[in-house]
Amino acid sequence: MLVSFQKVSLRLGEKEVLRDFSLDLQNKGIYGVIGPSGCGKTTLLNLIQGFLQPDAGEIALFSDRISAVFQENRLLPWYTVYQNIALAARRPVGREEVEALLRRLCMPGELDSLPGSLSGGMARRVALARALLSESDILLLDEPFKGVDMACKRQCEKTLQALSGGRLTLLVTHDPGEAAALCDTAILVGGSPLRLRRTLRIDPQSRGRSAEELRRLMLAE
Ligand SMILES: Nc1ncnc2c1ncn2[C@@H]1O[C@H](COP(=O)(O)OP(=O)(O)OP(=O)(O)O)[C@@H](O)[C@H]1O
After folding, report:
1. Model-level pTM?
2. Does any domain span residue 70?
3. What is the pLDDT of residues 156-165, one digit of tens each?
4. Residue 10's domain is classified under what CATH number?
5. 9, 71, 78, 136: least surrounded by Cβ within 10 Å?
6. Residue 147 falls within a domain, yes or no?
C-alpha cells in the first residue's frame, strides 16, 4: 500500500468532515480527486501532509518526501521566481534547469521577477514548477491550473504528465476534462461526511470518452 486511510474520522469546528473514511492507493501514477466544493478534498491532502491530525483512524504513507501545490501559491514575496523554486528543490538546481521547466510551462523569461509582479496564472505555474522540481515521492496538487488560460493549460498538463513519473500524484480538480486528460485513475468523492463514491480507471486510448463518463457520474451524484 502506498497511501492508506484506515477508518479516519475528523471534525473541523462544527463539521464532521470524515467518519470512518478509508482509501487505499496501491500503485504509483496520477490520481484525480474529484468531488463537489466543500466536501473535503483539500482536507485529505492536509491530512497526508500532517497539517491536520485525525481524531480517529490511521494514515500510512510509503514515503514522507512530499511536494505540493497548495490552495494558495505560498511563494515567498522577497525571493525571485528562480530562488522560490531552487530553495525548495532538496537538491542543487541551476538557472538553466529552472528556465527550461518554466518554458515548458509557457512561462519563459521570468526567472528574476518577484512574485508580486506576476499574474495569478503565472504565480500558479511557479508554484507548480517548484513542486515538480522538488525531489519527492508524493506530489499533491490542489487545483494546480487555477487561473491558467486554456492554451497554456494543455501545455502544462503535458509537462506535468511527463515530470510526475515515478511518483504518486494526487490531483484535486473540479474539471472532469482535466482529470480525464491527465490521470490514470479518477477518485470520485462526495457527501457529508465524505465518502468514496467511485474509482474509475482512465483508458489512455479513449480519454474523451472517460471525460464524458466522469461528467455523467458527477451530474448523477
Ligand atoms: N478550520 C476549519 N474549521 C471549520 N470547518 C472547516 C475548516 N477547514 C475546512 N472546514 C470545512 O470542512 C469542509 C471541507 O473543506 P475542504 O476545504 O477540505 O473542501 P474541498 O472539497 O477542498 O472544497 P473546495 O473544492 O471548495 O476547495 C468544508 O465544509 C469547510 O467549510
Report:
1. 0.95
2. no
3. 999 999 999 8
4. 3.40.50.300
5. 78
6. yes
